[in-house]
């Protein structure tokens, strides 16, 4: 039997708010986890099956991600029960009603997540003037178009190879998922001299040991083609991308892609976690014990939230990328050093680093988490 879900510990949550707006057929939850470092920032998710537990876990993940990125923001998350593919009119009504209901919760700044996008954040801003990840027309920095998270992964790669027995120049890379994160990770890593030899999407894997032409593949994908149907490589099944012999593996698609039962003869030497929780904890431990260097998700994929926070502070895209570079470089090094020095897993080191920073912020506050 799994552990019973416990809501709350020394870090938070500060507030849990259930929202119902019958006139707009809206039901949702806001969890503000911790605001010691500043107002919480975190996405609004729309899905049919979201729960309080999921919302709390996502809010806590944001507390850790924002703290480890050294942002002056705590963590929070909001969810609405609904169809992420609802019509524009329906979605606008839901998002506006939900935001309006939370207009007094000034400790929470909305951001985009699954089922919401920049346009939704524009509606939130219009209602309550408290959203990040805005459309360009409202001064937003288009983080998916610019590849903020993919850029951050390429910075993590530069640091992490120092802990491996290969160089980034010429390193062979496989990437599961060729969307906002995967495409830009491939682009920035290619620019830094790495060779992308395998890429997958939900239809299958493309493999070319000589290196895939990433700009041609991106053009093919933008016209609706599946990566495996691109002419510049061999077509393989979807999971193949995870087991090809490469130096770097980047999961950039789904959670729980690898578990202890499925790691089999995983061969890469360095994992850069683009997706959130792409590997179970026990699989991470097993792979690290085999000598694989691992950069956990909330360290490696923080580029997106750093960009959103910089946008909220009125920075330009250039300023945001500078902040991503500095923060991810520093954090990747600190996590890998701590892990090596203290003989703990990279995830434990990352969690310690983030928790230390949250607790240090809490010490400065009269009522701790507030
Ligand atoms: P996306 O929807 O743009 O792209 C996802 C890609 O994964 C698509 O190419 C899709 O075909 C592919 N995919 C889906 N299922 C797959 C499967 N079973 N096997 C192989 N490929 C599969 O999403 P994204 O924005 O690139 O996000 C990817 C992951 O990274 C998600 O877990 C997301 O939560 C996480 N993440 C994204 C950001 C960001 O800035 N976009 C930031 C942090 C974390």
Amount of beta strand: 15-25%
CATH 4th-level superfamily of the largest domain: NAD(P)-binding Rossmann-like Domain
Q: What ligand molecules are bound, each kind once?
A: nicotinamide-adenine-dinucleotide
Could you tell me the radius of gyration in angstroms? 20 Å
- Class derived from helix and strand content: alpha/beta
What count of helical segments does DSSP give? 12
The ordered H/E elements are EEEHEHEHHHEHEEHEEEHEHHHH
The CATH architecture classification of the largest domain is 3-Layer(aba) Sandwich
The CATH topology of the largest domain comes to: Rossmann fold
Percent helix range: 25-40%
Mean pLDDT: 95
Q: In total, how many domains does the architecture comprise?
A: 2
Biggest sheet: strand arrangement: 9-8-7-6-10-11-12
Distance between the termini: 35 Å
What features would you describe in this structure?
It contains twelve helices and twelve strands. With 370 residues, it is α/β, with parallel strands linked by helices. Strand 3 (40-47), helix 1 (52-68) and strand 4 form a beta-alpha-beta unit. It is globular, with a radius of gyration of 20 Å. 50% of the residues are buried. It has two domains: 15-59 and 75-140, 3-Layer(aba) Sandwich (Rossmann fold); 146-303 and 330-353, Rossmann fold (3-Layer(aba) Sandwich). It starts with 14 loop residues before the first strand and ends in a 7-residue tail after the last helix. 40% of the residues lie in helices and 18% in strands. Strands 9-8-7-6-10-11-12 form a seven-stranded mixed β-sheet, with helices on both faces. A five-stranded mixed β-sheet has the order 1-2-4-3-5. The structure holds nicotinamide-adenine-dinucleotide. Nicotinamide-adenine-dinucleotide binds next to helix 4, helix 6 and strand 7. Nicotinamide-adenine-dinucleotide is lined by residues 143-144, 149, 176-182, 200-202, 238, 252-254, 274-276, 301, 304.
């Amino acid at each position: 039997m799994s552990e019973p879900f416990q809501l709350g510990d020394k870090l938070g949550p500060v507030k849990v708010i259930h929202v119902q707006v019958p006139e707009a057929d809206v039901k949702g939850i806001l969890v503000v986890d911790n605001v010691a470092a500043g107002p919480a920032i975190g996405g609004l998710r729309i899905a049919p099956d979201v729960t309080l537990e999921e919302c709390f876990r996502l809010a806590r993940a944001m507390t850790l991600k924002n703290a480890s990125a050294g942002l002056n923001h705590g963590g929070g998350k909001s969810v609405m029960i609904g169809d992420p593919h609802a019509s524009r009119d329906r979605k606008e009504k839901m998002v506006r009603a939900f935001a309006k209901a939370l207009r007094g919760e000034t400790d929470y700044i909305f951001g985009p997540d699954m089922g919401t996008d920049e346009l939704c954040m524009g509606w939130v801003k219009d209602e309550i003037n408290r959203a990040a990840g805005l459309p360009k027309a409202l001064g937003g920095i288009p983080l998916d178009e610019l590849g903020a998270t993919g850029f951050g992964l390429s910075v993590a790669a530069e640091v992490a190879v120092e802990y491996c027995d290969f160089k980034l120049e010429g390193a062979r890379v496989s990437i599961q998922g060729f969307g906002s994160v995967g495409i830009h990770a491939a682009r920035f890593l290619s620019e830094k001299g790495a060779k992308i030899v395998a890429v997958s999407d939900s239809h299958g894997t493309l493999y070319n040991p000589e290196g895939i032409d990433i700009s041609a593949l991106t053009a093919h994908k933008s016209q609706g083609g599946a990566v495996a149907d691109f002419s510049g490589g061999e077509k393989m099944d979807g999971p193949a991308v995870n087991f090809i012999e490469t130096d770097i593996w980047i999961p950039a698609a789904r959670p729980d892609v690898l578990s202890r039962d499925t790691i089999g003869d995983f061969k890469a030497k360095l994992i850069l976690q683009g997706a959130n929780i792409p590997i179970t904890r026990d699989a991470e431990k097993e792979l690290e014990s085999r000598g694989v260097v691992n950069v956990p998700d909330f360290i490696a994929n923080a580029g997106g939230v750093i960009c959103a926070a910089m946008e909220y502070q009125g920075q330009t895209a250039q300023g945001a990328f500078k902040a991503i570079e500095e923060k991810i470089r520093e954090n990747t090094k600190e996590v890998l050093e701590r892990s090596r020095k203290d003989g703990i897993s990279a995830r434990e080191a990352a969690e310690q680093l983030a928790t230390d920073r949250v607790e240090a912020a809490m010490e400065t506050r009269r009522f701790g988490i507030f």
